[in-house]
Every structure is written in structure tokens, then in C-alpha cells.
Amino acid sequence: MELTQLEYFITVAKLQHMTKAAKALNLTQPALSHAISKLEEELGLPLFDRGGRNIRLNRYGVQFAKRVEGALRSIEGGIQEIREWSDPDTGLISISYLNILGVDLVPNLVQEYMQEHPKVRFELFQGNLGDLDEHFELGSSDLMITSRESPVMKHEWLTIQKVPLYIVVPARHPFARQSSLSLTKLSGEPFVGLKKNCGLKATITARFENTGFQLASTYDAEDLVTVAGFIRAGLGVSVLPQTPGLMLEGLAWIPIAEEGWEWEIGLKWRKDRYLPAAAKAFIDCMEQQQVHPV
């Protein structure tokens, strides 16, 4: 059974006349008659009572027509929905992002974009790095806002923000009033680290490896907010970005003396996967209006 057969059937059912229906469908009458007969053969019963060129739906045809009309309306609605999704001005932009970025960066990006594209809709998924990677790789989101990772051949990357990293200590710590501090000074200090499911983990680990300085974590927290809380409680020191959500009372933020200590945040997408026009338009906008470092 084919979709065209069903469309032919509904046209004939509405016009109750084979010749008129054939003309409306731009078909020959024999071709239309053959299509309807084939449909009836597949169903195993007649749908029309025939009297020459005039035909009338029988009780089977009436019941079937109700179902077919509903199905065709559903298909038409699906087609319209897909067209809207694929339109860069009315489409859906699906983005997954790290928990900490939901405090400030992502809401600002969405708000600014919707000011210029008010009919676009966003589908947002927030989580830790492990959840986001799985969500993204399964194709449940088209774009991902995350920390920069080591290059993956099938991924594209666009930097949208570079955030300076700071040494963070309790306000009563002896280092608290330093104007800047070398990481080597943290040797022997209890250090609050991050578990692998936090997006900043890879960045901090790579930076420490480049300095040749080894730092053993006393605690490994699930997220950045927990790290800030541990530091405020006097349980250790750490390295964090100075972003909203982490600026707790009782913390001292000290610039790092060594260069290159930044958290690079960007937009990631897969080049081997179809991207809706709305997602492409969002990427283009980010390229033209990149967020400046804070």
C-alpha cells in the first residue's frame, strides 16, 4: 500500500465521481481506476458501490476514509513541522551544555540570539560532561557548549569564550592577600580537584602536565560549585574560573603568575552528521559575534 493510493482514494471519496477525480489528480481515468482497484484488492474488500462512472462509498469505505483522512492530516502536519524545524528563522536549535554554564553564559547567548530571531526555538539539555558526551554522540542534540577537549576528527570546534583561571584559597589563608601566585607555591597544600565528569578537569590536568609540576588532590569533587564550597570550608585550595555561581563569600581569588592558564569554552558539533539550518545559522552568528574574554 502506497501513500499515493491513499491520496487517490480520498479524492475519489470526496468527489464521488471517477472522471472528476482523475481530472483533479491529473491522471487518466483508467490509471485511477486501476489504483483504486489495487487498493481494494490489498484490503480484501470493496470500498465503493459502483454505478457507471458514479461511485459511492460503502460502509467499509466510510470507515476507512475516516482513518485515512486522519493519517494524511498527521503526515501533512509532520511535513509542515519538519519544514519549520529546517527553516533558519523558525527552526529548533538543540544544545547540550555543562551545568556551570547555565548560570550565565548559555542564558545570555540564547537571549541575545532570540532578540534577532524571535521565532526560533531552543531545546536545552544541561548536565555533567559524561552525560553530555553520551547525549551528544547519540544525536540527541545538534550542538554542545563545553570545555575544549583534545581534537576529535569527527568534531568541529568554535571557541566562544576564554576565561582566566585563578588560584582560589579560603579568605583566611596566608596566600589570600597575594597579588599573584605561582602554582609551585601550592606544593604541600591540600588540593580540591575534580572528578572526570567535570568539564574543567581535562583543562586543569593538561595545564599542570605542561608545567611539569605534580599536584596530588586531597579531595575530588563532582562539580565546580562543590569545589568552591570545600575551599570556603577550609578543606583546601584549587584552581577555578571566576564565573557566576562560584563567587562565594569567604574565598580569595589570586591571579596565576604563569601564563596560559585559561578555560576555553566553545561550541562543538559533528561534521559527519546532518545539521539543521537553524543550528548552522546559530554557528554562523557565534562566528561573527564571538564572546569576548571576561
From TrEMBL:
Molecular function terms from GO: DNA binding; DNA-binding transcription factor activity
Gene Ontology CC terms, in alphabetical order: cytosol
Keywords, in A-Z order: DNA-binding, Transcription, Transcription regulation
Entries under SUPFAM superfamilies matching the protein: Periplasmic binding protein-like II (SSF53850), Winged helix' DNA-binding domain (SSF46785)
Residue ranges of every copy of the HTH lysR-type domain listed in the record: 1-58
Record family assignment: Belongs to the LysR transcriptional regulatory family.
Record-given protein name: LysR family transcriptional regulator
